[in-house]
Amino acid sequence: MWEADVIGSTTWATGRACRAAECLQWSEEGILAVITAGAIHIVTPLVGYARDDAGDAAQAPHARAPWSITSIDAKRELARQPAVPEPADEEIAAATTPSTLGEAWHAAAWSPATVGPLHTCALAVINARRQLSMYVCESDARTGPYASVDVPYGRWADTRTGVARSLATQFSAVRWSPVSPQRHAWLAAGTRGGDVILWNAYAQPMHVVQCWRVPHAVCALSWCAWLPDGTVRLAVQTSEQMHVFSLRDDDEPLCESVGTCTLGLAQVSNLHWADTIVLRWATPSALVSWEVGAASPVSVPVTIGAHAAGSDARGTLRDDGRMYAYDGSLLATLPLKQRVWGYVRDPSGLIVTLSSADETASWRYMISPTLTLTLWLPQERWLPNASLPPIVAWRTWAYALERHADDSALWMPLHARLAQLEAQAEALCQRTTGVAAWSAAHREAQCLAWATHVAPSFAATHLGGAQRLCAWLGLAVRAAAWDAAMPGAYTQRLVRALEQGATSPDLSPAVVSYLQGAKARIDKPTNETTMETCPACDAPMPPTLAATAPCPAGHIFDRCVVTYAVIDGVRTWTCVGCARQAYVPACEVISKWLPAMTGCLACGNRWRHS
Ligand SMILES: [Zn+2]
Ligand SMILES: [Zn+2]
Predict the structure, then answer these.
(1) First-to-final CA distance of the chain
(2) What is the distance in A from the centroid of ligand 1 to the CA of 497?
(3) Are 76 and 64 a contacting pair, CB within 8 Å?
(4) pLDDT tens digits, residue range 235-271?
(5) Which residues cross the membrane (predicted)?
(6) Ligand 1 midpoint to CA 535 (Å)
(7) What is the CATH number of domain 4-357?
(8) Where are the chain's structural domains?
(9) What is the model's pTM?
């Protein structure tokens, strides 16, 4: 039984899928990269983004595309690259130069959010010539354009000559580590010469921080999550062995081998970590798990296939569409007949598959590979995941509402969670609470409040308090982050915001007294002017902090959603969720204390340049 329904599907003639199980990747921002030999497609499921984004209610949900798609242009990419010099010796050329006939891409990997501009995700790619570069989007990540940025190579190949040298600079695998507690993240790439190279993802420009060698060409890489002891593990699969290295959370990470096992001749696919100790992969006849450090891996036999298409917490999907649990029992069969190349589930629960869609008409002389991408809605309901931007956390729920007109039972767990969060937040008022704890509560409140954007009116009543909670937690975050060294004008606006916040209706006495206390703590007499004036006519502005600031003469300015400053310049960011703007110069002045650049303070979604 396959417990998911099709939301939409599309077919591309952009060549074969690049690497089974690695051809589909969700970013932390809910954007999917589909990596094919001819093009990299960037796919964003639309529901959950501002509803009016996708048209008015008159347009039935099923009539519009379930996603927006943009592509990374392969021809432009290859034209940009210098010509590869022709090796004089034909045999060496055949052995060392990958075939690039009709192909542009070999592999790609999303970075963690925060590596790209405005805390977005960047895409590291290996082209068909096995060169590594990075793509970033300066504007809206859903629509592109994605621009190429070079990854500076280090000097690891300098001492090698001839074939060894070209193999050492031909990349074969790429993966980003998760962000560490000390804010380190690395881009790891493997070469055909057996080199493993790490770049510091946050350095500007990026630079190599570590490189070492394994005995054979690198085939695949996989990072686990950070361990509590401040280390992270990188699995490096070569043609013959599996190696695991441990790296410390440090500027110059030292790597230490923690285990090696022999793979034999079996083709490996879907290399991934089950947790921080057990590494999993698939072979054509088995699902393999290896407790790192144990003498040998454990295999569970399954029906013979070619590869695994991907995994989730429950099991692994094979290329024949059968899903097996890790004990080898059959869980489900995908209702698709053709070979499956990719299977991924995003943290909000949405499933995507990529399968072959080759023409079977016998009169055709040539069959060029075509691929079908399918988006599935699981029948079970996942709770919104507060670690994601609210727009993404809500996606499966939004689809469920559109497709099944769910009754209010859908909302009961959320209602319960909101009540719990309200109680927790009031408890925070009773003690000295740091920015981190307030921010965590605020993020979850933003996620619940976002529901009111996507919910029908009957359901919105179940989450009535979410926006109120979100609003006062936003003030609490700012108050906790306040510092006496902050500019006086910002402090004055914050004082006004706290004052106005404390008078909003339906707040509990504990919250009101907390906000009043915060205001009293911050409000120090200053010599600076206390009145804002209109940037156009210098008339005094009324002391409100609404989204727009009108002056008595009728000039209207937008207010920065982070700093409440009147926006009178063009350097702004726009929130992809609520469309409110932030005024970049005002944000920069206080960014040392309040790092608001990671997302909109009102709704929690990401910025785009505007
Ligand atoms: Zn004016
Ligand atoms: Zn927003």
Answers:
(1) 46
(2) 22
(3) no
(4) 999 989 999 999 999 888 989 999 999 987 789 999 9
(5) none
(6) 7
(7) 2.130.10.10
(8) 4-357, 401-609
(9) 0.87
